[in-house]
Write a sequence for this structure.
């Protein structure tokens, strides 16, 4: 049958990424404690399309992914899948993304009541002869405004915040490692289950540890700077304001391998 996608295109405009999005697929992850967690990922797969080619072959992405269905997809195999996409579609560059929830058991700070917290996580791999793998984790937390505390006779306004870190690294960096650093950068973590003694503790702890959105990203940057496994990071925090109609936001990116890095 005619291969329309393989025909030449007279417009001569290359496309950076073309492919398929929002594929639901099982993912198996190792945990830091030595166990396994099964989750469901939303997967995107793309290739770079040259200016001379009319289109890509969408079905081939799914064929590559399903070649691996007999063995669970794991983070260690993502570069392998990315390489296979690039090879199968004869592309200069291939890109693979897996976005998934990651669950961690978390105990309340006073009573020890346990509940499952879910965190947003993703793995993205770009293959163009070399594999570039980026791990991203986001965690909810609490921030309390230092200015509000300073100017108020009593109390201070606080808000939920979402803190995110994307990292390139050497060796192994666990999702749990990043979650701990994200939560340590906030005024206080949030929990799935809290009894009254726990509520008192987290309220007072946040009051004793006020942070602007700028403080959060700077404290997180210090933690990532101190971790020798991390070679590059891009971090941000969005604070969902409780007394304003807008949110507060801060972001920074640093490449620790750059000669200009200080």
């Amino acid at each position: 049958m005619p291969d329309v996608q393989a025909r030449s295109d007279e417009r001569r405009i290359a496309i950076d990424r073309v492919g398929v999005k929002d594929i639901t697929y099982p993912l198996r992850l190792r945990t830091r404690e030595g166990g396994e967690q099964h989750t469901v990922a939303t997967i995107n797969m793309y290739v770079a399309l040259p200016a001379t080619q009319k289109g890509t072959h969408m079905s081939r992405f799914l064929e590559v992914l399903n070649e691996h269905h007999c063995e669970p997809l794991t983070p260690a195999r993502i570069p392998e899948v990315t390489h296979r996409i690039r090879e199968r579609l004869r592309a200069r560059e291939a890109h693979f993304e897996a976005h998934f929830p990651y669950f961690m058991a978390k105990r309340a700070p006073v009573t020890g009541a346990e509940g499952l917290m879910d965190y947003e996580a993703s793995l993205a791999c770009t293959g163009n002869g070399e594999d570039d793998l980026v791990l991203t984790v986001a965690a909810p937390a609490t921030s309390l405004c230092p200015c509000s505390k300073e100017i108020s006779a009593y109390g201070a306004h606080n808000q939920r915040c979402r803190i995110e870190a994307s990292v390139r690294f050497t060796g192994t960096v666990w999702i749990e490692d990043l979650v701990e650093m994200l939560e340590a950068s906030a005024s206080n973590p949030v929990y799935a289950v809290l009894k009254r003694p726990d509520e008192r503790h987290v309220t007072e702890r946040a009051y004793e540890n006020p942070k602007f959105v700028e403080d959060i990203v700077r404290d997180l940057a210090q933690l990532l700077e101190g971790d020798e496994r991390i070679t590059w990071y891009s971090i941000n925090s969005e604070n969902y304001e409780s007394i304003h109609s807008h949110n507060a936001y801060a972001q920074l990116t640093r490449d620790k391998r750059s000669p200009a890095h200080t």
Notes: The chain has a mean pLDDT of 91. The chain has one domain: 15-255.
